C-alpha cells in the first residue's frame, strides 16, 4: 500500500526547488529582528503574525509590479553583512525542514549595497549563510545542498557586472545567473552582452520570462539570449491551442520548448497573486505536465506567497489528483534541470530521490 499523501508524508518526501528568492523567503520574525537591529523604520507592523499576513495581502495584488513592492522591506532590513548571513542560513534550514534536498536560491546582490557592502562581500556573506544553514540542518538530521543564482534586476543596467560576479564565485557555490524584476518594458535582450559573456564562460543561466509578458519575452529569452531554463514561462500557453476535441496543438515556440526539454520553473501560487493565472485548478501547470513539458514546481517567494514546496505540492494534489509518482516526476525533472554537475545530479536522483519515492509508492 502506498503511503497516504498526508501533509507530514509530503513534507518528509525529498523535494527539489529551483526557483526561490532569498529576499522573498524571510521569516516574519527575522524581518522584525533585523529592522530593530538596523534601525529600519518602514515596517507596517512589528507583530510577526500580522507582518506575515501583511506581506501576503500586499502581494495579492493582481500585478507583478505591485507584487514586487513588498521587497522594499525585506531588502531594507538586509543591508548589513550579519543580516545576510542570518537570512541565508535560515533559508537553508527552513527548506531542509520542509524536505527540500537540493535548492537553488536566488537574489540580486545589487539590492544590498546601501550599507556600503561590495558585491563580492555580499556574495561571500550569503555563501557563508548557506553553508551555516546546511550544517545546522545536518545537525537536525536533514541533508540539504543549496546552490546560489545571482540575479541582475532588469530595470537597472548592471547585468554584465552581475554576470561577471557570478562567474567569479562559480567555484564557491554560485551555480548560475538570472534576470528578475518587472518584465513588461524590459526585454531580456537589453542585457544581451551579459548573456553572451556567460555563454563564452560556459556558465549557466535562467531568465524570468513569460510571467507578466507573453511569447515575445519567452522567444527572446531562448532564441536571443540562450536561456537554459525559463523562470515561470506560464505564457507558453499562448502558443498552445486546444481544439473542440480537447486535443492540444503546439505552435513552433511551444514545440521548441518541449522538444528541447527546456525546463519551466513554474510557481503556481505566485502566479495567482500576480494575475498570471486564475486558480490552481486552471493553472497551465496541469496541462503542461500532461503534455510532458519539462515542468518543475517552485515556491518563488515563500514569505509573499505564504507557501512552501510542501504546500505547493499539496495544492496540486488537491487540484489535479496527483499521487507519489507525479511528485517524483516533478522532483526528478527539477533535479535533471539543476545547474550543478551531472554526476551530482545523478547521484541525488539515484541515491536520494528514487529510493525515497520507491518506499512511498511501495
Ligand atoms: O516572480 C517574480 N518575477 C520577477 N521578479 C521577481 C519575482 N519574484 C521576485 N522578484 C524580484 C524581487 C527580488 O528583489 C528580486 C531578486 O530576488 O527578484
Ligand atoms: Zn521569481
Automatic annotation (TrEMBL):
Chain positions recorded as Zn(2+) binding sites: 19, 21, 208, 300
Span of domain Adenosine deaminase: 14-354
Cofactor note: Binds 1 zinc ion per subunit.
Cofactor(s) listed in the protein's UniProt record: Zn(2+)
One GO CC annotation: cytosol
Enzyme class: hydrolase
Reactions listed under catalytic activity: 2'-deoxyadenosine + H2O + H(+) = 2'-deoxyinosine + NH4(+); adenosine + H2O + H(+) = inosine + NH4(+)
Active site residues according to the UniProt entry: 211
Site feature Important for catalytic activity, where: 232
A GO MF term: adenosine deaminase activity
Binding residue positions for substrate: 21, 23, 181
Transmembrane listed as a keyword: no
SUPFAM superfamilies linked to this entry: Metallo-dependent hydrolases (SSF51556)
Family: Belongs to the metallo-dependent hydrolases superfamily. Adenosine and AMP deaminases family. Adenosine deaminase subfamily.
PANTHER family: ADENOSINE DEAMINASE
Designated name of the protein: Adenosine deaminase
Organism: Solihabitans fulvus
Gene: add
Amino acid at each position: 500500500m502506498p503511503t497516504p499523501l498526508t501533509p507530514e508524508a509530503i513534507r518528509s518526501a525529498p523535494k527539489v526547488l529551483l526557483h526561490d528568492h532569498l529576499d522573498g523567503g524571510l521569516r516574519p520574525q527575522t524581518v522584525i529582528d533585523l529592522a530593530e537591529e538596523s534601525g529600519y523604520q518602514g515596517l507596517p507592523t512589528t507583530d510577526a503574525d500580522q507582518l506575515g499576513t501583511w506581506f501576503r495581502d500586499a502581494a495579492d495584488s493582481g500585478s507583478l509590479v505591485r507584487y514586487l513592492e513588498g521587497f522594499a522591506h525585506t531588502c531594507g532590513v538586509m543591508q548589513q553583512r550579519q543580516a545576510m548571513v542570518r537570512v541565508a542560513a535560515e533559508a537553508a534550514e527552513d527548506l531542509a525542514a520542509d524536505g527540500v534536498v537540493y535548492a537553488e536560491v536566488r537574489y540580486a546582490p545589487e539590492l544590498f549595497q546601501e550599507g556600503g557592502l561590495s558585491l563580492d562581500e555580499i556574495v561571500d556573506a550569503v555563501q557563508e549563510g548557506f553553508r551555516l544553514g546546511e550544517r545546522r540542518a545536518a545537525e537536525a538530521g536533514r541533508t540539504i545542498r543549496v546552490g546560489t543564482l545571482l540575479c541582475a534586476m532588469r530595470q537597472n543596467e548592471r547585468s554584465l557586472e552581475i554576470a561577471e560576479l557570478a562567474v567569479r564565485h562559480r567555484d564557491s557555490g554560485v551555480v548560475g545567473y538570472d534576470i528578475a524584476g518587472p518584465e513588461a518594458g524590459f526585454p531580456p535582450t537589453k542585457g544581451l552582452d551579459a548573456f553572451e559573456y556567460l555563454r563564452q564562460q560556459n556558465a549557466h543561466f535562467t531568465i524570468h520570462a513569460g510571467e507578466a509578458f507573453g511569447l515575445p519575452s519567452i522567444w527572446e529569452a531562448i532564441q536571443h539570449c540562450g536561456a537554459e531554463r525559463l523562470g515561470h514561462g506560464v505564457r507558453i500557453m499562448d502558443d498552445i491551442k486546444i481544439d473542440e476535441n480537447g486535443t492540444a496543438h503546439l505552435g513552433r515556440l511551444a514545440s521548441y520548448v518541449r522538444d528541447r526539454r527546456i525546463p519551466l520553473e513554474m510557481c503556481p501560487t505566485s502566479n495567482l497573486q500576480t494575475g498570471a493565472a486564475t486558480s490552481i485548478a486552471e493553472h497551465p501547470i496541469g496541462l503542461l505536465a500532461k503534455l510532458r513539458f519539462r515542468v518543475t514546481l517552485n515556491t518563488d517567494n515563500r514569505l509573499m506567497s505564504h507557501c512552501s514546496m510542501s504546500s505547493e505540492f499539496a495544492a496540486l494534489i488537491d487540484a489535479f489528483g496527483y499521487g507519489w509518482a507525479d511528485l517524483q516526476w516533478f522532483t526528478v525533472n527539477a533535479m535533471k534541470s539543476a545547474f550543478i554537475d551531472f554526476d551530482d545530479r545523478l547521484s541525488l536522483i539515484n541515491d536520494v530521490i528514487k529510493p525515497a519515492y520507491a518506499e512511498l509508492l511501495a
